[in-house]
UniProtKB/TrEMBL annotation:
Membrane-spanning residues: none
Keyword annotations from UniProtKB, A to Z: Glycosyltransferase, Transferase
Gene Ontology MF annotations: glycosyltransferase activity
Domain Glycosyl transferase family: 206-362
Superkingdom to which the source organism belongs: Bacteria
Protein name: Glycosyltransferase family 4 protein
PANTHER family with a match to the protein in the record: D-RHAMNOSYLTRANSFERASE WBPZ, GLYCOSYLTRANSFERASE
EC number of the protein: 2.4.-.-
Pfam families reported in the protein's UniProt record: Glycos_transf_1 (PF00534)
EC category name: transferase
Coiled coil start-end: none
Length: 395
């Protein structure tokens, strides 16, 4: 099958981009896969693309200095928010959706030779539902829990998503809530976790006194709470360090919290890394302090290198990945003292870390690219059969 995966900006380093590249890796072993980026904000993608997977951009961004010269019509069109999307998508952070990008996407969808087009956020899914021809299998992918969308976005989802040929969500909690909102036919909606990338992952020795955290540094990740918990856990363990990998809008608040808590000698802001597994393998524990998680890819990545995770039991992903006291610890949601106690337990007990690390590595097999690719294959063929009655796409 020819599969196109639509993404807002495939050239950055965010979690959705990383998981889209991983998905392209997984599906690309059996299918012809292309990533289609609505905008291009850098000359080259941050993440290395899989062999045989191309990246097509529809609109070079004005923020990329090497962009082709733009005429005044393009500049004007980019200033007009998309008239076909809810305000949260058309005017949200990043402002990917405007009249120019919308027209470019519509032209692409009208001419694509893909058998399957997968959208990866509400704006793309909504436009896919409106404009993709019936010759294309139209699959939406949701990375956000239904209740976390704005009211107008939820309304648009309920109106337009039923025109899609299927929808995948990341967790069982998501599946239940989207099912309640959309009341789909059997088989239309499914849970599809994000896959790991292929490869042999390094394995942590679980001996370094390092706690790791990998994420965009945004308010929902609540890094000041992780810093506070780490400070409490290391009062009698000054040899332990916290390494934070990522960048984002909350970086100034995180720097201030490090100084306010007196942790400048124990906390390192490492910036973004393309070698997530190599850096996580240097850690012995990973901490997660999010207010909410769409899935929890950093948890799965830590598991892949055999590192146990201590996380708030926040909605909705961690509890579906972490089995408490088996491959990590789930602590009371938003209880900083409980998070500190969980970190301290694993810091002080090497054998417990090793037991949980082995279980974590075993758990990560469920998210291997082969396993997730097989799940996608079965789902796509089931949806094709549901629509056509029999398989009528190129293989």
């Amino acid at each position: 099958m020819r599969i196109a995966i639509l993404i807002g900006n495939g050239y950055g380093m965010g979690g959705t981009i990383r998981t889209v590249v991983n998905l392209a890796h997984a599906l690309g072993t059996h299918h012809d896969v292309e990533i289609v980026s609505l905008v291009q904000q850098h000359e080259q993608p941050f993440f290395e693309l899989p062999a045989g997977v191309g990246m097509r951009n529809l609109v070079p961004s004005r923020s990329w200095p090497a962009r082709p010269a733009q005429g005044w019509p393009d500049r004007v069109l980019e200033r007009i928010p998309s008239p076909h999307l809810p305000r949260a998508e058309a005017r949200g952070r990043g402002a990917l959706f405007n009249v120019r990008t919308e027209r470019a996407l519509r032209r692409y969808l009208s001419a694509t030779d893909a058998d399957v087009v997968i959208g990866t956020r509400p704006g793309l899914n909504l436009l896919l539902a409106r404009w993709a021809p019936r010759s294309v299998l139209r699959i939406g992918q949701e990375h956000v829990h239904f209740s976390h969308h704005s009211g107008d976005t939820r309304g648009a989802i309920q109106r337009w998503y039923p025109r899609l040929d299927g929808l995948t969500v990341l967790t069982e909690a998501d599946r239940r809530d989207y099912a309640a909102a959309l009341r789909p036919e059997s088989g239309w909606l499914t849970t599809m976790p994000n896959p790991l990338p292929p490869g042999d992952y390094p394995r942590s020795r679980l001996e370094n006194p390092i706690v790791g955290a990998v994420s965009r540094i945004t308010p929902i990740k609540q890094f000041p709470k992780l810093l506070e918990a780490f400070g409490k856990a290391t009062r009698d363990r000054p040899d332990w360090q916290l390494r934070i990998y990522g960048r984002g809008q909350s970086l100034p608040q995180v720097r201030r919290a490090i100084l306010d808590l007196g942790l400048h000698n124990q906390v390192a802001l490492m910036g973004p890394t393309a070698d997530v597994f190599g850096e996580l393998a240097k850690c012995s524990v990973v901490g997660v302090s999010s207010r909410a998680e769409g899935f929890g890819m950093s948890i799965v990545e830590a598991f892949a290198v055999g590192v146990p995770v201590v996380s708030f039991d926040c909605p909705h992903g961690p509890a579906e990945i972490i089995t408490h006291d088996h491959n990590g610890l789930l602590v009371a949601n938003q209880d900083v003292s409980a998070l500190a106690a969980g970190l301290a337990q694993l810091m002080e007990n090497t054998e417990r870390r090793r037991r949980m690390g082995a279980a974590a590595r075993a758990t990560s097999v469920h998210y291997s690219p082969d396993v997730i690719a097989d799940r996608w294959d079965a789902y796509l063929r089931q949806r094709i059969t549901a629509r056509h009655g029999q398989l009528r796409v190129s293989s």
